[in-house]
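Homework-ish question, so no full write-ups if that breaks the rules, but can someone show me the predicted structure for this set?
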Amino acid sequence: MNPVTRRIRILVLALLLLHAVVLVRVFAMQVFMSSRFIDEAERQTHRTRRLVPRRGPILDRAGRVLASEEPGYHVLPWIGRRDSRVWRCGRCLRTVTLGARTLPRKCRGCGAPGERFDELTVPRPERYAGIARHVDLTPEEIEDLIERTLTRYEERKERGSLRGPDPVLQDVPLELAREMHLHPERTPGLRIVGARLRYNHHPAVMPHLVGSAGLARERDPERLAPLGFRLFDVYRMTVGHSGLEKILDERLVGRMGIQEVVVDHAGIVVHTSRDDEPVPGDTVRLTIDLELQREAERALDGCGYSGAFVAIDPSTGEILAMATAPRYDIATLGKEYERLAADPAKPFQNRATSTPATPGSVFKVVTALAGLEAGTIDPRHTVHCTGAFVRPGLSIGCNGVHGDVDLLEALERSCNVYFIEAGIAMGALALEKTCLLLGLGAPTGLQVAEASGSIPSEERCRGFALAMVSFGQGRVATTPVQMARVAATIANGGRLVHPSLIVGERPRPGPPLFDRANLDLVRDGMYAVVHGRRGTAHRVGLTTFSAAAKTGTAERTTAEGGLNNAWLIGYAPHHDPTVAFACYVEMTPGHGGKVCGPVVARWLAAWKRWRDGGGR
Amino acid sequence: MTGLGGRIRGAVHGLDRRIVILVSLLAILGVLFIMSASGAANPDGTSQPFWLRQLRWLLLSGLALVGLLTVPYRWVVERAYLLYGLGILSLVAVLFLGRSSHGSTRWFSLGVMDVQPSEFAKIILIVTLARYIRFRRSQRTMKGLVGPFVLTLVPMALILKQPDLGTALLMLPILFAMVYVAGARARHLALIVVLGVAAMVPVYHLVLKSYQQRRIDVFLGDDSGLSRIERRDIFYHNQQAAIAVGSGGIFGKGLLTGSPVRVPESQTDFIFVVIAERWGFLGVFFLFGIQAALLLALMDLAARTREPSGKLLVVGVLALFGGQFLVNVAMTVGLAPITGLTLPFVSYGGSSLLSSMVAVGFALNVGMRPDFVLARRDFGD
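A: Not a homework solution, just the prediction itself:
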């Protein structure tokens, strides 16, 4: 054979031998090891999808939305992709953001190979211009913000936190989200993500009550773990930060939905083994009416001092309005926090529930009721007031010289001497008993944080102390909501009301606790306070509502001199009360009726309109 | 025999029908399995499905082949050095002017299509080596091998620079096959292989890019230099390919039925996996049968050809097809590192198809013009 031909044959033989080696390998895989690979190919993997439930809305009495969860957008930093590059598929125009050293491999949208991608770049001065315009910052400030967010995230990571980076910007407008989505190259290092946002629709109204909610914070995962939420579920949802949002969090968050599916190697779902839809959080309906609440806040703000106003439906215990002053705006809380926290007026305090104060003369209705029930007050009996209660070594002034006064007149003109005599006659025990029956000295059972206040007790109140508490001074302190409860209980015929902020969650008023005749005496006294010629709340505008009330002016000795805590409690209308109220204004030079009367009168006018318009 | 018809009849008469039929079979197989791998209709619904595009490329490259057949191959061989110079020039130019993607610069964008000069550098190398060796007998000595090696290493180095390891390495079997057939001594070639392997150590450290080094590391069983994601990607690619091939069994899963294993790049470099999965070992055997028959047909053609440059051309084409097929299949079944070579005539892709068609065109061209005998005797003697 020709040697060249031989060499060609040897060459081809060698090539064919190598082909045979590869063929043997394929043969081994397909024939001997085939079953193993078939198992692999048919191996099914279980996947679990966790679906975050929608947070329940908070509504007012009439069903107006106060807080709800809405879809929105956050701007997040790319972790570790500070210098990310943006590529666009030349075929389907889909963009992809990758790290500085990563190159696109294959288009996820159309399958085009990596070489079809073009890099999109924007000159440095044009970067962040759009986003800066939207949020009123300079591009430099945006870059600084990104840097700070990432630094904070890194620090947190050092401490072992698993929480991702915070948004650089929260709740950005749709136009910005769209622009960032279409032109990711203009905002390198940032990405837009869909998010759940908690909107407070009336952020300046009753901020203490509704409170705020938003992104989860450090401790939230632990708190929500017993409800079946895992770490990363919590970071995907909104959680309560303050107020009812926080207190009712467990009811508002709902229940996680869990889908368990079996997928084959191709990612196709072949079986669904569990499909629990997420259960949205409860809808919470408040007893408060937004309009009445607004009016209460306006009325209170109108007097110019810190204070509180509470209005209760005496037949149910439902709170119709519960205002405190001063307040803050939840929408701007983040920016204003430092200033608000340093404000000496303490705007974060809910004065309706959390700051017990000396009630002063409004407490006399309690003393009167206690004495009548104990049988130590005879309504026909008179006490002679000389302008002071004088005993050896002891002298307590009255607010005037009343002469001979009976119970009705003592209430009408608020005579201290009468009630000191009555208190000493009945003793501390009888007074303490009535306080307990009226729910004083303990939280009223509202769904928000409350202070207990303090009431006279037999051990602590003897002699001078007993004399002082008998007209509401000294060792007695009540919150406005407690006093509103007293007013409501007197209004509805002696049945203790259970104040409530949420519809249908608290028991109705219990059985009558006091003798009807005794109660009527007190009520007549309160009616006289408003309608009597010499009443302490006469001519403050309450007569038009046929209201009954009791005023109080507790003196507070301060560096500035004589300032008072002004009180006014009562109900309207007198013959068939449908609302009870308590108003409290602190550190005012004025007196109870003069300061609180106009506040209550203004609110009652709104209430009357609401009532006549069919409000319930 | 006058007129066009007669000339066509004459041309068809001289055509090696075995090669034409075998190549057509491979191309049809390709279109079929591209359709199987990527679906009859494109998921995005707008652009043409891959199999239809491949069919279009097939028509175009077929026309190019027919065009090539009208030019006597010797006319091309005479201009081999000019071609070689142009080839080197384009390889240099693509490094500066070419389009980058995946971290390598391989393409010229020519509007309608992207041209990959390295695909044609392979063929120019075959033609150049044929031109260089045809009347020489010096390759029997070590010294005489210097020329062919230099001619090969220059384009190889440029292609490595792109970097395109697969295509660069494919030039070695072409060179070895051609000098061997031209009379180089087996022990010389063996010595060069040994030295070459020894030289790989400095080349590995000095020439190769880090990602190429890592591919070799992975193939040799060391994946410590990889990031977690890269390790997962490579592992995933190899594993999915193995599962797809293995689960095909003897008879396969059928062309368009069942739910296929997902393998990345299945219609291009990994088309073999699709064949093995859908048609099983029977299909693989069929494919290898066609390949073996093609190699044998080329062998017969080479043996039959008396004109030395034609003979060498056919040997070069034979080595090209044999080498490329081997490396491609070996990488899909885990016997070689994943280097990014296509399966000749079968894989999806216009550049690859066109270059394979041009290569086979040269072989057919040689077969059509058997009468040139200028040398007194074969260089092998």
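Now go work out the reasoning yourself. Hint: The mean pLDDT of chain B is 83.
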